[in-house]
Structure prediction request, 711 residues.
Amino acid sequence: MTHLGLVSAVAAAARGFEVVAFDADADHIARLQRRQLPVVEPDLPEQLEKHHRAIAFTATASELGRCGVVYVAPDVATDDAGHSELRPVRALIATVAAVLDAEATLVVLSQVPPGFTRSLPAPARRFCQVETLVFGDAIRRAMSPERFIVGCTDPGAALPAALDEFLAAFGCPIVKMGYESAELAKIAINVCLVASISAANTLAELCERLGADWAEIEPALRLDRRIGVHAYLSPGLGIAGGNLERDLATVCDLADALGTDAGVVRAWTENSRHRRDWALGQLHDRVLGEGPNAVIALLGLAYKADTASTRNSPALALLAALTPFAVRAWDPVVSTSVVRHPRLVQAASALDACAGADALVIMTPWAEFRRLSAAAIAERLRGRVVVDPYGVLAPDACRAAGLEHVRLGSPRPPRR
Amino acid sequence: MELIHSRQSPEPPSRVVVLGGGGFIGGRLRAALEHAGIPVLAPGRSTLDLAAEGAGATLQSLLRVGDAVVVLAALTPDKGRGLAPFMSNLAIAAAVGAALEKVEVGHVVYVSSDAVYGAATGRLTETSCAQPNDLYGMMHLAREVMLRTATRAPVAVLRPTLVFGASDTHNSYGPNRLCRMAHKDGKVVLFGEGEEMRDHVFVEDVAALTVAVLRHRSAGTLNVASGQAISYADLARKVAVLFDRPVMIAGTPRQTPITHRHFDITALHKAFPWFRFTPLDDGLARAQREMLEPR
Prediction:
C-alpha cells in the first residue's frame, strides 16, 4: 500500500469494484483503516473518504484468496544511480502467489525492468500492466486512464474474464503486447518525456543567453501537431522524483549489456544534472558574490508541487551547496527537518521566509506561491533578487515592485 | 570525480612542500602560504633537480610523514611540446611518485592543466572527457594518474585554464602577451578578429584556491576557471584601455576555425561557496601594473 497501490485501490473502488488492499505492515494498515494517508496526493483523501466502504484494508495475505484479480503495486525503490531494488516486489509476488485462487489472475503493476514478469516462477496466469502514475495528478489519471498497456504471454489470446471486466470498466483502449514489450513501453513513455524535457531545457538555456524567451516559443510549439499540446515543453530544473531517472538507468544498463547506443540518454542525464544547479548559478552571479553574510529565502522543498516527495529534489541539492549561508525556508508540506544544513531556519510562512533575505528562490511551483504578492515580497526582502525558475510570479508585477526577477528560459535581466 | 573535502572545517596543514615553487604559479603559491603563516618547503633546483637521476630518493629525504605536497614542477610548453619535454615531465612525475610511495604524506595537490581536455570546445566541466590532442595535455593526464596511484593520501587535481599574471614567462596567447604587445608596439595583433571565447584566470586566484584545497585536504578534480569567458577581441579592448597612449587592435587573416571554450564552475561553487575570483578588469590592471614596474 504505497502511493501507486493506494491510488489504484481507490480508482478501482470508484469504478464499483470491491477491493482488498493488502500490506504486510499491520500498523500501516491500521492507519489506513483510520484513513490516515502516508502520501500527499490531491483528491486522494476525498476519494478514499467517498469509497472507503468498498476497500478492505488488511494485513492478512490469505484474504487475497477471494480476489479474481490481484494487482501487485508496491513502489520499487531505487538507489542514487537509479537502479531498482527488486527483491521486495519479488517477495511480495511470492507471498501473493501462495494464497492466490487457482482461477485468479496476478498483474504486476510496479515499475519493473524488461524480462521481470517472464522470469517469475509463479503464478502461471500472470500479466504485467504499465502504470503511468504522476505525483500530483495520480487520481485523475488512475480514474480516467488514456489506455491500458497489458503485457502477456499471448497478445492474440483473450484476457481472463475477470481482468477483462475490470479493465473494460474504465472505458479506454486496452493494448495487449508481449511481456517485454509492455515493460519496455513504460520505459519508452518516460524516455520520450525526458527527451522533450531535455530539448526544452537545452533551448531554454540558450534563450537566457540569446535574449529570446522560451515562454514565447513554447505555445507555438504546442500548436505543432507533431509535438502536441500536452508535450513536456516547460523548462525545469532537470529531472527529479526518481522514476524517470530509474528508466534512464535501465536503458543505459540494457544498452550496455546488449551493445546498443545509449549516448543520447547519458547526455540527457548530464543535462539534467547541469540544469538542476541553475538556481545555484544565479545566486552566485547575483547575490552570493557580495559576501558570506547573504541570507537566502527558499520556498519549496518538494521535488514538484502537490507532493511531499523530496527524491532528487533540486531544492535539497541547492541547500547542500549553500551550507555557508543563512537560509530561511518554507514548504507547504515538507518540513526543513528533512535537510541537514547548519544555518537553515524553518519559516512560519512563505512571506515570513522573505523577511530580511537578500534573495528569494522559489524551488517548487506550489499553487500558494503563485498567489504571493510581489509587492509584499519586495516589502520583506532586504535585497531585490528573485530567482523563480518556474515563473510562478508574474514578471511584470515583480518589475513593478522593483524586483530583479529571473526565470528559466527568459533573457537575463541586467544586474542592478 | 568531484572535489571532496576531508576536512569540512579548514585547518592549515602542518607543512606544505611545493615542488616547482620557483615558477609562475609556484611563486605566488609560496607567497600565499607564507602570508597565511603556513610553513613551506620549496626546494630549489640546486637542492632538488626532479629531472635528475636519483631525484626520487632526494625528495624522499626531504619529505616528512604528514606533509602536504603540491606538485607544480614541469617543463612548460614554451620549453617545447615535443617528445623530449614530454619524457622529462614524466620522469619528474616518476621521481615524485617514487618518493610518495615511500613516505606517507598527508595530502597531494597536482596542478595539471585544462590541456587534458584537448581540443574540446563549448561548455566544459570536471566530467568532460579528458582526451588530450597533444603531448603536453597527455603529459598532464598521465601525471594525474601517476600521482594518484603513487600514494594513499587524498589527491586533488587542479586543472587551471589560461592563467595570467605579471611574472608569467610563457607568453602564450592571452592577457600577458596582449599587454606586452600593447606596451612594446602600441598594437595588439589578434588571430582572426579575436572571435574565440576563452576563460582567463588570475594567478593569485589559482594560488588562493590551491591554499583552500590544502586547508580542506580535498581530493578529486577541480577545474580552475572563472566561469566568465570573453572573446579575445573584448580582451584586447580591456587591455588597450590600461595604457595611456592609444593602442591599435589589429586582426589577421584567420588560419584556423573559430572555437570557443567555456567553463561551468558549479563544482567550484559547491566546493568553495565563499570563493570569489578577482574581476577580470582588476586582474588585468594589476598584471599590467606589475609587468611594467621596474625590477
User: Anything to note?
Assistant: The first strand of chain B starts at residue 4 and ends at 5. Chain B touches chain A at residues 125, 127, 264, 266, 269-270, 273-274, 276 (CB under 8 Å). Residues 83-102 of chain B form the longest helix (20 residues).
